[in-house]
Amino acid sequence: MIEVKDLQKTYTGKVPVHALKGVSFDIPSGQFVALMGPSGSGKSTLLHQLALLDTPTSGGILLDGVDILSLSQHAATDFRLRHMGYVFQEYALIPELNAIENAFLPLMLLGIHRKEYIRIAGDLMDKVGLSDRLHHLISELSGGEQQRVAIARALVNKSKILFADEPCANLDTENKGIVLRLLRKLCNELGQTILMVTHEPEQREFADRVLWLRDGRLEKEEYISKDTQEEALHNGYRTDISSDPDYLKDD
Ligand SMILES: Nc1ncnc2c1ncn2[C@@H]1O[C@H](COP(=O)(O)OP(=O)(O)OP(=O)(O)O)[C@@H](O)[C@H]1O
Ligand SMILES: [Mg+2]
């Protein structure tokens, strides 16, 4: 459960920027929410505040009933490692580590046994189609491959909450489909609560609900019907449909 109350964020600089101007919403546990809105509307700023990567100017945030803004730095780090996954818009991978090391890092920091974290990270790298890139350095990976490592890293701790900032921005159609189906499955099967930023209207159909930000305020929301969601899950971003021989047959 994510509860956000009157969240405001003003970046102080030579020219102050009011990036969030009083945003309030609740997301029940296990809901997959797409966050949309024009560039500069405050989407990344909102995710940063929710994930304890920055401090809001005012307002309240409860994650699973925990008032995260009152946590000490140590408790905040621990909460983030255990209960959150985060896909950064700019990936934020560690260049000195290879792909699989980046992916298993959160589990290593949690003190999980090496054999176990290699197994979990390896399985996720396989799911995102990178099982043949495990030992590549980050600089040796394409943009889309780096993005998929960042996704694997955000999923390894099977956290209750996942924040994903345009996780498909650099992916081709096939990989967009793979990632969106994976997120939908994690939501359905693990009950993960997901807040995903996207610019593509087609991607929101994988979610349960859409929040639209404009100029630092919530502008509107939309609920996605189960039928639309099923349709997206089965046909959205499918590249195998046109190559299916049955599809080409005249009846
Ligand atoms: N560190 C910062 N200092 C000052 N202003 C900032 C900072 N980060 C963001 N902003 C400003 O805050 C506003 C919201 O930025 P934010 O990155 O949240 O937008 P966004 O909705 O994620 O956009 P995009 O779709 O381009 O990623 C913008 O006007 C931006 O210029
Ligand atoms: Mg952004």
Count of helix runs: 8
Number of strands: 10
Oligomeric assembly: single chain
Instruction: Please describe the biggest sheet, giving its number of strands, its sense, and whether it closes into a barrel.
Output: 6 strands, mixed
CATH architecture heading: 3-Layer(aba) Sandwich
Going across the biggest sheet, name each strand in turn. 6-7-8-3-9-10
Looking at CATH, which topology would you report? Answer: Rossmann fold
Strand content: 15-25%
SSE topology:
Blueprint: E1 2-11, E2 17-27, E3 32-36, H1 43-50, E4 58-63, E5 66-67, H2 73-83, E6 84-87, H3 99-109, H4 114-127, H5 143-155, E7 161-165, H6 173-190, E8 193-197, E9 209-214, E10 217-223, H7 226-235, H8 245-248
Parallel strand pairs: 3-8, 3-9, 6-7, 7-8
Antiparallel strand pairs: 1-2, 1-4, 4-5, 9-10
Helix pairs in contact: 3-4, 3-5
The protein binds adenosine-5'-triphosphate and magnesium ion.
Walkthrough of the structure:
It is a single chain. This protein is 35% helix and 24% strand. The chain is an alpha/beta fold. It has a single domain (27-56, 73-240), classed as P-loop containing nucleotide triphosphate hydrolases (Rossmann fold). The chain has a six-stranded mixed β-sheet. It has a four-stranded antiparallel β-sheet with strand order 2-1-4-5, with helices on one face. Strand 1 and strand 2 (17-27) form a beta hairpin. Helix 3 packs across helix 4 and helix 3 (99-109) packs parallel to helix 5. It binds adenosine-5'-triphosphate and magnesium ion (MG). The site of magnesium ion has 4 residues, from helix 1. Magnesium ion (MG) binds at residues 43-44, 89, 165.
